[in-house]
Amino acid sequence: MAILLVGIVLAVSACRGSKGLTGEPRYGLVLLRGPITDARKYVEWMADLREDDDVAGVLVRIDSPGGVVGPSQELYRAMVRLAGAKPVAVSMGAVCASGGYYMACPGTRLFANPGTLTGSIGVRMDMTNLMELMESIGVRHTSITSGKFKDSPSPFRNMTAEERTYIESVVLDLHAQFTEDILAVRDLDNATLQQIADGRILTGRQALAVGAIDALGGQEEALEWLEQVTGKGKLPLDEGPKDKRKWYEKLAEATAAFNPLATLPVPRWQAEYR
C-alpha cells in the first residue's frame, strides 16, 4: 500500500507541474471543486493573481455545494479584493450554492448554465441527540461546565427552550452576515434578496430572472466576456491553486486519508453555508 501511495503521489506531481507562464501576459484561472473546508490555498492563489501585472483578468470556475462559514467568508473577501484590482468572470458549474454562491458574488460578471443549481442562501447547524441510545445501553454522561451554555448543544440530553433560542440567534446572525455581504456587492434590492434567502435552490435561469447572476452561459462564454472586457483577446490560462507541497507532504496527506477518525461527525459548533 505504501509503494502504491508513493507511485500515485509522484505521478500526480509530475502531471501537475508549473506550466511556466510566469512573466507572460495571461488570464488567471481559479478552480474550486467540492465542499469548502479550508480557504488558504485559494486565498493565496487569488492574492498572487491580484498582484501580478501580467495577469489581465481572472476566470473563476466554481463547482461547490458550499461549506464551512469561516472559509466561505475568507473566499468572499479574497474575491472582493481580486475584483477590485482586475476583471473577474465567474463560471458556475453543476452546483454553485450557499458558500459557493457566497464566494461567487463579488465577481465582476457571474455566469451560470440554465440548469446550474445555485442560491441556497442559508445556514445549517446539525445536531444529533444520542440520549435514548445511550440510555438503552446503560451509559450515562456527565458534563461539568463553567457556564450554562458551555455544553450547548449536547448530544447527550434534550435541548432546552432557552438553548434553542440561543443557538437560533447564532444561526440567524450568520444568515444576516451572508445577506449583508451579498447586498454589498450585488445589484439586488433587499426585498428581492429576502424572498430568495430562505435556503431555496435556484436554477441558473431562475437566478438570472431575480438578478442573482448576470448571464447564462458556461466557462467558454465567461472566458469570451473576459477577452472582450480586457481587450486582450485570447491569452493562455494560468491554472491554480498550485500544489506547492513536497512529495512527502502529499504522501503524508494521502496516508492520513485512511485514518478511521476522519469518519467521525463534525464538531457540534460547525455551522455551514450549505
SSE-based structural type: alpha/beta
Low-confidence stretches: 14-19, 261-266
If helices are DSSP runs of H or I spanning 4 or more residues, what is the number of helices?
10
Number of domains: 1
Would you give an account of this structure?
With 274 residues, the chain is of the alpha/beta class. It has one domain: Alpha-Beta Complex (2-enoyl-CoA Hydratase, Chain A, domain 1). It is 42% helix and 18% strand. The protein is built from ten helices and ten strands. The strands form two sheets. Strands 1, 2, 4, 5, 6, 7, 8 and 9 form an eight-stranded mixed beta sheet that branches. Strands 3-10 form a two-stranded antiparallel ribbon. The longest helix is centred in the middle third of the chain and has 25 residues, at 161-185. The radius of gyration is 22 Å and the shape is globular.
Q: What is the secondary structure topology, with strand pairs?
A:
Elements (H helix, E strand, L loop, with lengths): L1 H14 L10 E8 L6 H12 L3 E10 L2 E2 H17 L2 E10 L1 H6 L4 E4 L4 E3 L11 H6 L24 H25 L4 H7 L4 E3 H7 L4 E2 L2 H12 L6 E4 L6 H10 L15 E2 L1
Parallel strand pairs: 1-2, 1-9, 2-4, 4-5, 4-6, 5-8
Antiparallel strand pairs: 3-10, 6-7
Helix pairs in contact: 1-10, 2-3, 3-6
